[in-house]
């Protein structure tokens, strides 16, 4: 394949413009056609047969011993015979780059088995000398006898060459000599490319397949015959307008698709399909069909696997591309094909986009495809309007969030912890240089969604839906997020073998993620239920907004953490009274769940650190136990326990300023103990997630210098 510099040199601007379509990309087929054209130009010398050749199919054999077997035959006399010069009838040598354009190899993968349509054939892996001799024999006994090749005997001026090759195949003595000559020269099992050289004039040279038009046309006819008989069709062809080139020509209806999208068995694409009439449903010219198939190499280099599916992220230039943009697009595709790195095409395109493409010029076709049954594939979220803006800005937004805002960061002069914990060992809780990689691969959601077995992934996997939504800029349902978050929290909290203690870092990671998705510039969240609309709004946290404790005026019985709680609630739209101060609203109910969790987390931490209790309120009231019908009882018991510890400390200290955790208790009485939670409208996942967020807040709500442990680095949860 030509390097980007070599590509520019070989195809000057005018020549490149002449080779490629001059219309904008308007469909997946247009994009595949462009990729196929670029790949063909980069791997062949062009010409009529270029779309049919597969010059890289035998790259693994390059410069290896005995990798090229050439059977040499002389058809210049009255009867065909084997070469009798000093080189002999079978010449075995190393397959080199110089041989690639000469061999005229046409190989295509089909359901796990390779098919060679050319007279040149690639053997299977490590075949015995005897088997290689059989393959050499088949160049004369099988290939010339194929129906598509035989049709040329009468139709082509070089048809006599096909006839003579048949004669060799029918001559047992000549065939045996070919076999024994191969076996005699090969020592041990070998993988080889087997081809022919043919002498057609008495004073001429032995010619390679690419130098004999009849052999190339036979290869072409062989390949085209498969386009109209795929999926057991008899002849799926007819005169129609090619959907790619818009030319009225002979079209085929069973062409392969590099993404396995337009397939005869895809009933949602072709309902009630008659396979022999497929050319009417999806007409593509023969040459276009072959060009589309040549796109596979570039398409596959822009694909990656995650969650049991294959994600395609295919770059193209919006509108009609300039020649310079086409050169750069080729460079992106080339580098994706040759670079040995774990970068996704999103990251490679981002690296390239910085200096070359104008704003919004680089776009992407995005979809995820999952195998389903035999030759059936489920397709997710297809769009041609993908932009780097969405995954890139989400990664930047997440990093900015955890790096600077008050929800995750304590001001330098603050003697109290930040609202939520951070941990450098958790990727979503620290600024991360690999955040774009995390977003583009789906790892971003793998860390926060319910865990699944990727070997048994299905079409309803919400991780795939979330990934495709972010890549394409489509809003993700908050309902999906909350359900996945809560399921993961419950799984982690109840899995004693894998996890120890409450999963506070997980909850903090989930909250950071939902805040990043709610970024006003991205709008990647939507709410199916209007009551959840506040969750989709971007929080208004300031950078280190809290004053120091010395600067906070504290009334008698007040608590130094009260302003922090007030700020966090007011600046979190899902909790803020500014969004809805009605005591019967879902926002108020969500706030009540958060406050209950905060009190459970606060008192649970007190029990662990001051009372040395192994089982605390956090364990006693796990997330899965919180329901509308039970939340009032949990609140009453938690407040009662709080009062018990308040009286206990008063006895020990002689005095105590108010109720323990009164900055939480006072607000909690107003939100839960007075209204009847059994009549609440909040959904269970909503209730449980914000309860879990409150527990995380409460566990992290303490003086910065408490005890001998890092206040923002609890040791009760595994590393992530």
Number of strands: 17
Instruction: Give a quick account of the main beta sheet: strands, pairing sense, barrel closure.
Output: 6 strands, mixed
- What is the gyration radius calculated from CA atoms? 35 Å
Low-confidence stretches: 545-557, 707-716
Mean of pLDDT:
84
- Distance from N terminus to C terminus (CA atoms, Å) equals 41 Å
Bulk shape: elongated
Strand proportion, as a percent range, falls in 5-15%
Give helix % range. Answer: 40-55%
* Count of separate DSSP helical elements: 27
Instruction: Return the structural class.
Output: alpha+beta
Explain the overall architecture.
This protein is of the alpha+beta class and 720 residues long. Helix content is 41%, strand content 11%. The chain contains 27 helices and 17 strands. Strands 1, 2, 3, 6, 7 and 8 form a 6-stranded mixed sheet that branches. The longest helix has 24 residues. The two termini are 41 Å apart. About 3% of the residues have low confidence.
